[in-house]
Specification:
The structure is a homodimer.
Chain A lengths: L7 H9 L6 H12 L5 H14 L3 H12 L15 E5 L7 H11 L4 E5 L9 H6 L10 H11 L1 E5 L6 H11 L7 H14 L4 E8 L8 H17 L3 E8 L7 E2 L1 H12 L5 H17 L6 H13 L2 H12 L5 H4 L9 E6 L4 E6 L1 H11 L15 E4 L6 E2 L4 E7 L5 H11 E4 L9 E6 L2 E4 L10
Helix pairs in contact in A: 1-3, 2-4, 4-9, 4-10, 5-11, 5-12, 5-13, 5-14, 9-10, 12-13, 16-17
């Protein structure tokens, strides 16, 4: 393809003026960018024009397609069954992948999971898995296929082969104020997920104070865009919109979240983690063809907990990927962070709000997260919450326990928690966790009465 | 100034979201960019955000100020008199600087003129001057001052010292579809002009098919912005809006335009060239304090033609800057292009429209212009029009004569001229050349009755 097939400036100009680009034109821009024939400064001008002028459905699909095909697209057709993965737009304490992937795999549905690392206030599945001593997420794509075949499950990181255009574009968006753009977010997510070789996908699109997207209306737009792209690629795609007004579960931090996940797999759940995990697991089991209805899928998910097969699946995959299974079998044997301190209530009252962003930043400051992509994370650092929204507290009572190996960080983390927690005379009304479902048929309010298994 | 005085991403984000930047913030962006501490890809995202969200008056002045002070600002205070320059937004056949600068200098007003080169369909004053054998536009800034002192006139190109930030930003805008943006155009023009050390400025803001800006309303916005920036910098700034529905004058090409300019200085004018040249000259003479009114200024301009002092001024400056004065004294002695051919009328009728852009591109193809900045130009190439709008033509009659040293280019140039010329049964109504005047007091319709000297 010659470098001058299209005039790049005229393509930028057309988007700038609110016009649309053809699939071939978008493919050209992404291809040229991937092979360094189109400089960053032209791409960033294009991205800003896209940010401000938007993209229609065809364009968003086209950019996802181009990014997907900038690298290797896995073919898992040799593996029996409907391959299903899950993606979450992320939030503080969101360890759901660690729980639902073993559940769904144990229910007989292959889960080929390619995950990311934490950045800023949110953690990443890879960092959490690596807190298990020896656990190797850097499998090559041959091993990736082998491990799924053997266990119906694998956890790896995005390799250089997978959607390299997305990796470069994401880095560029990060430094040019073009991150929060629905078609770009959607195509970035979908290009990576589609490259895994999946047949179906469930999406957890979070909104609220602790989520990347605060506004439910924005979250709906993103969910629709994600589902549209999935449908365009003939993948069975369902998105659930979920509320994130506070951290998910009680533990935040890499090992701390693995530990909480193990307890969940032993049927000792925080309510919010249970509800969303069972929902997404049930959906994946249904999408994977192992259950007729979502409610049946949820019942099957519960059975994998009760019969111990989900926990066994986690143990098996830890062994397969080189991890120390002793810490899974006895989480109490894990070496804790050197220092702990309590965050206590300044007055009597009820926790009325928790700014999950501030909690995530506090955990980062304790060592659990990273401000920049190359920063290492401390597996043992983090925060264990004792109180969540609606809980009563007394002055001096412990609200959260901070874990760190860098004692000097307690002050800044405590300060962030003081900002995060609001204690008032009484709590407000609690909101339902799951608000909407989006599938190829459109967007609907989530109807709890149709999934009695969830309660 | 530390690199992290401001967070660049948050400045881009604010502009993206329609907010405004302070003078200090804009200064920071331009300073960092000039010293290579801010990469092209961040600047281009910022420029696209500016393109789509605009800049207010303070921001446009701030960016002009920052670009002006990115380099040397000339101090001409040792030269007596009010230093006045002219800038045109450019068009096909626009040789007005070559005529008005000698007129105004001959009337006793110092004209320190820093000009540019041609690009695309428009020519540049520097290329035209360089068609005079030996003429040197690359004077250093010491010589620049010396020559103005001696002749009230100098013609040079933008040196590396003058507004280097503008040079870099302009190159970036060119490849990122962020050229046609009024605050960026205005600050680019004004930063260069203000660096010359002028006291006053007249602006010719062209609109119509042959102009850079087609829409008169856009031209008004640009003119107001230019005048506002000038006023902000305490420079007496006046802008005239002029119509450009066809090329200016009859000759297009480097030497051909010098030749036509010499004839004008001998009082043999095309009507359109005469009208706008006298207007702008008269304004400059008035702004330079040598005439009470615009009409008086125009009368003085006419006197410099009639008494030969303007032509003498051109001759003197050609000699001073190393040019061969023989071709000024006898334009017929200039070595013409090796090949000429006629563009003839396909049918009887009246010329009803001439797309000046296509004529400019035809001239470029003949060798008079450049597609890329580093391309050399042919001094002798170009087009001599025989017919303009309103002229009757008969089938087979010559409409224009093409001059080139690259005979093979005739076909493409003739094809462009066929697209450019519209011959119909009768011509439409002609429009006034000068439409509006903009000064510190605002925008006004141009009132021909107040300048009887113009007719």
């Amino acid at each position: 393809m010659p470098n001058n097939k299209f005039n790049v400036v005229s393509l930028i100009r057309r988007k700038r003026d609110g016009g649309n680009l053809s699939k071939t034109e978008i493919q050209y821009l992404i291809d040229e960018y991937t092979k360094d024939a189109l400089p960053d400064y032209q791409m960033s001008a294009f991205l800003m024009a896209v940010f401000l002028k938007g993209m229609n459905d065809e364009e968003a699909s086209a950019i996802a397609y181009a990014m997907l095909h900038s690298g290797k697209v896995m073919d898992l057709s040799e593996i029996n069954g409907v391959k299903v993965d899950k993606h979450s737009t992320g939030g503080v304490g969101d360890k759901l992948s660690l729980i639902l992937a073993p559940i769904v795999a144990a229910a007989g549905v292959p889960v080929p999971m390619i995950s990311g690392r934490g950045l800023g206030h949110t953690g990443g599945t890879l960092d959490k898995l690596e807190s298990i001593p020896g656990f190797d997420v850097n499998l090559d794509l041959t091993r990736y296929v082998e491990v799924i075949k053997k266990h119906n499950l694998v956890f790896i990181g995005q390799t250089e082969d997978i959607a390299p255009a997305d990796k470069r574009l994401y880095a560029l968006r990060d430094v040019t104020a073009t991150v929060e753009c629905i078609p770009l977010i959607a195509s970035s997510i979908m290009s990576k997920k589609l490259a895994e070789g999946i047949d179906a996908l469930v999406l957890d699109v979070k909104h609220g104070s602790g989520a990347f997207i605060k506004d439910p209306e924005e979250a709906k737009l993103l969910a629709r865009r994600l589902v549209d792209i999935g449908s365009e690629f003939k993948k069975d795609t369902v998105a659930y919109l979920t509320n994130m007004d506070q951290p998910l579960g009680y533990k935040i931090g890499n090992w701390l979240e693995v530990e909480e996940s193990i307890f969940c797999l032993q049927d000792e759940w925080p309510d919010d983690v249970r509800e969303i995990t069972l929902l997404l697991s049930g959906s994946m089991i249904q999408q994977g063809g192992r259950a007729e209805t979502l409610d049946d899928g949820i019942e099957m998910a519960k059975a994998t907990i009760q019969n111990g097969s989900a926990l066994k699946k986690l143990r098996d995959i830890v062994i397969e990927q080189g991890g120390d299974v002793a810490v899974i079998e006895d989480p109490g044997s894990y070496k804790p962070a050197a220092h702990q301190t309590d965050f206590t209530a300044a007055k009597d009252g009820v926790v009325s709000a928790i700014d999950a962003y501030q909690v995530g930043m506090a955990s980062l400051e304790l060592g659990a997260g990273r401000k920049e992509k190359t920063q290492p994370v401390d597996p043992a650092a983090g925060i264990v919450l004792r109180k969540k929204i609606g809980d009563k507290v007394k002055q001096g009572e412990t609200i959260a326990v901070l874990h760190t190996n860098k004692e000097a960080q307690f002050d800044v983390a405590l300060e962030l928690l003081e900002k995060a927690y609001v204690v008032e005379d009484k709590a407000g009304a609690s909101r339902p966790l799951i608000t909407h479902v989006v599938d190829a048929g459109g967007i609907h309010d989530f109807d709890y009465s149709r999934v009695p298994a969830l309660k």
